[in-house]
């Protein structure tokens, strides 16, 4: 990725670091890895120290321990920041990574400078929960590739899929090549932990942005608004006409939103105008 060399923590977490300034951590979603953030790394590196890593069971990071909960994924990030001697970071989580970011902010508030939750889940309806539980069952039976085509159809617009077949094929290969146990462990948490410590979300006191796409069927605008309502002074942005993988499909739009929020959160230059809400 843009010439960066991945490194490892003592516990084995694979990560990339680029740029200087306030640290910003990027956490990917289930079945993906740190490579999904290529567009954000390019856009954020001129302004921040950007850290992207592979969650447990993904990419080049080790498998999670049996029975791990959300706190185990939060602990992975804590170990990474300790290794890098980073005292505080602005944490950006996408989809499952948004759950990890929430868990990190709850368990390690002293190390959280700001929080961004992108295209993530909260308070699923019974129908939404039944659907994701069924996808978990299919993944358990058939492996990480079981839902790949359906997932890509949810994640990207038809226009983007048609215009970028090589990239879509590469993402499908990433999904298919996941370690089955690591993938299933994360997917089960993704399917069941949308309300993880929901009653404690009011304790989060750092600047928070909750954002999703107008057309994201699994991480809906309603979810974003309900989640933001639980966190004091959280901002909500719904990007028009965007689907789930908006950081990949529309990196400039997402980067503009992130820069606006992050630069304000760490009291840098004035906010960038033109956010689509």
UniProtKB/TrEMBL annotation:
Which InterPro entries does its entry note?
Answer: AB_hydrolase_1, AB_hydrolase_fold, AB_hydrolase_sf, Epox_hydrolase-like
Q: Which Gene3D superfamilies match?
A: alpha/beta hydrolase
Under which name does UniProt file this protein?
Pimeloyl-ACP methyl ester carboxylesterase
Q: Name one Pfam family in it.
A: Abhydrolase_1
Sequence ranges assigned to domain AB hydrolase-1 in this UniProt record: 22-250
